[in-house]
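Q: I have two molecules that I believe assemble together. Could you output structure tokens for the complex as a whole instead of separate predictions?
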Amino acid sequence: DTGVSQNPRHKITKRGQNVTFRCDPISEHNRLYWYRQTLGQGPEFLTYFQNEAQLEKSRLLSDRFSAERPKGSFSTLEIQRTEQGDSAMYLCASSLGRGSSYEQYFGPGTRLTVT
Amino acid sequence: AQRVTQPEKLLSVFKGAPVELKCNYSYSGSPELFWYVQYSRQRLQLLLRHISRESIKGFTADLNKGETSFHLKKPFAQEEDSAMYYCALQGGSEKLVFGKGTKLTVNP
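A: Yes, here they are, computed for all two components at once.
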């Protein structure tokens, strides 16, 4: 197991286009998290899944954003009608359980640039 | 509201000198606190968590509830400690709330 993987690693898109990112968590991890990180900031929570159920969403996740984890394995994050303010690093993390005993393992991120 | 403050954006020390990275938090309940580290061109990874009270790579952090702080310390900094350090809080939810990070540079 090589850890959490994310694809693509980089995405350049024009304003108004839709983009979709994929995250493959560590196998047997039932929790999957999405964070966004902009320049000079720490990661900010977007949403998380326990298996296929989306249990929490941040107010940052506007109606242009949607995340899915259809079979409780990989997850996708879609951004519709991208805006320049969506330019950021999108991070995915997974964990085996709840609470501080279970580490959140992060992927390498997908860097989105909206021109 | 949950908030994590790391007052120093940049911190520069010489090899062998002590280092302290400051972290203050705001949370009304009992928080769980972490330090994450990101080395150059690597992914974010957990350095230590307060609940385990362990020392990792010579780093320790003590939760001070009175001062709402969780400062990261190392008595003798090494060049390989140069990295971006993030303090994070988990409280009442599974999400992590991160500070803005401190970039530590250890000079030879």
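A: One point stands out. DSSP finds no helices and eleven strands in chain B.
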